[in-house]
Amino acid sequence: MNWTGSIRLTSVLKKGRTIVKDSYHEGAFKLSRPVFLDETSPTYFLIHVGGGYVGGDCYQQFFCLEEGAHLTLTTQSATKVYKTTGEPARQETEMVLRKGSFLTYVQDPLIAYEGARYIQDTTIHMDKGSGLLLTDIFTPGWSKSGKDFTYDWIRSKMNVFYDRKRLIMDHVLLQPSDQMESILLLEGYSHFGSLLFIHDGLSEDMITQLEESLSDFGQKARIGFSRLPIRGLMVRVLANQTQLIEKIFAVSENLLRSLALQKDVVFYRKY
User: Could you report the per-residue pLDDT of 162-181, keeping only the tens digit for each?
Assistant: First the structure.
């Protein structure tokens, strides 16, 4: 397949610090220089130089953290998907997390504009004892009519394998023609977010503290918690503002970093 943009990154632990052993990018994808917001682990910004995704675009990402490596990846800005003709825009991501590694993957919102069709396919392979913090936000973009839900559809698939066994098979399909306001879908909300956290340090008390910390947002957003068979949870958020979901996820990340990871709060300084 000819990729519109491709990026590969492998990190290792060396002398108590995480470094990138191998990296490669081509096409519309670029990788920033490392920023050390945490003394022992680097943060990399994933940069798209094409301005947005259009019909037929295909993007590939591969991230591997070797044993003990800790790394943060985040996008530079929101991903914009414009009106697609013919084939949908597509992004495929594969992650491999070895024992003792931890990946923070914080994505800015994906904005789907009028007539957009988008497929996101994520596969994550985790060794026992590895950890992950991942966020995802889908929002509708501006349209000439001024109506919400003018994109054609967004399809997001995520498969997580932990210790060689399937842990999560998550399939989200947002399709306006299917009555988005109906029960069990977005129920009148326009923005959708997911936060996935897996780490051996997570406890029931921490989940309870997180639920209490987010209770103040209950009047403006709908928040759901799903506990995993291992030490992990999925947080789902329905809201009408991107900034509200980002704030909920920031509160969640800060609390989980402090309690489960025993690390300081990180400010990504994007804007």
Answer: 999 999 999 999 887 665 55
Whether the CA torsion 54, 115, 271, 94 is positive or negative: it is negative
- The encoded tokens of residue 24 equal 């490669």
> From the centroid of its chain, how far is CA 133?
8
**196-222 per-position pLDDT tens digit:** 999 999 999 999 999 999 999 988 999
**Token pair belonging to 189:** 């909300």
Task: Enumerate residues 6+ apart whose C-beta is below 8 A from 51.
Answer: 80
Cα 98 to Cα 69, 75, 95: the distances in Å are: 8, 23, 10
Residue 270 domain-assigned?
Answer: no
Let me know if residue 269 belongs to a domain. no
Domain that holds residue 90: 5-261
**Residue 178 amino acid letter:** D
Q: Reduced to 3 states, what is the DSSP secondary structure of residue 238?
A: strand
